[in-house]
Amino acid sequence: MSTTEQTYIMIKPDGVQRGLVGEIIARFEKRGFKLAALKMETPSKELLEKHYGDLADKPFFPKLVKYMLSGPVICMVWEGLDAVKTGRVMLGATNPLASNPGTIRGDYALQVGMNVCHGSDSVENAKKEIELWFNNDVKQYKLDAAQWIYEA
């Protein structure tokens, strides 16, 4: 059964530098998701090490943190039915070469090391990431277009 939930989506430094912010936001809006929080952040090393803590023992971890420190990121919370699962589908596979055309990574990326976006991989991780990046400062409002997106 589908449920309304929130997901954390982050446009990484390569996506910001390449001018893809508007396109990515537009894709989520056009899909029908509600933007609940948005900010540009220049993350600290400590914040990134917390965010990517589950990857700390991987050999690529130092390179990942260095890349994520290379420029600002766009932090977003999107809300809607099955937002986590659908958000991941919209982003495409972590390896852009395995991503289908029409996905964000399939359309805009070629290598795992610069794959444009991050998306929560579970509802539990979305909650943790939203707390980490936004301290749960997420706006609650009614999306007037919801009547044109969701069945009554």
Low-pLDDT residue spans = none
Task: Give the percentage of residues in beta strands.
Answer: 15-25%
Tell me what the CATH architecture is: 2-Layer Sandwich
Structural class: alpha+beta
Count of discrete structural domains: 1
Number of helices: 7
State the share of residues found in helices, binned by percent. 25-40%
Q: What is the arithmetic mean of pLDDT? A: 95
Beta strands, count: 4
Shape: globular
CATH class: Alpha Beta
| CATH superfamily annotation | Nucleoside diphosphate kinase-like domain
Structural Rg: 15 Å
The quaternary state of the protein chains shown equals: single chain
Strand order of the largest sheet: 2-3-1-4
CATH topology, by name, is Alpha-Beta Plaits
Family: Belongs to the NDK family.
Domain Nucleoside diphosphate kinase-like: 4-141
Binding site for ATP: 12, 60, 88, 94, 105, 115
Protein name: Nucleoside diphosphate kinase
Architecture overview:
The structure is a single chain. This protein is α+β, with helices and mostly antiparallel strands. The chain has a single domain, classed as Nucleoside diphosphate kinase-like domain (Alpha-Beta Plaits, 2-Layer Sandwich). It has 7 helices and 4 strands; from the N terminus they run E-H-H-E-H-H-E-H-H-E-H. The protein has helices spanning 13-17, 21-31, 45-51, 61-68, 83-91, 104-108, 123-134; strands at 4-11, 34-41, 73-81, 117-119. The protein is globular and about 50 Å long. It starts with a strand and ends in an 18-residue tail after the last helix. The model has no long low-confidence stretch (mean pLDDT 95). It catalyses: a 2'-deoxyribonucleoside 5'-diphosphate + ATP = a 2'-deoxyribonucleoside 5'-triphosphate + ADP. Residues 4-141 form the Nucleoside diphosphate kinase-like domain. One of its GO terms (molecular function) is nucleoside diphosphate kinase activity.
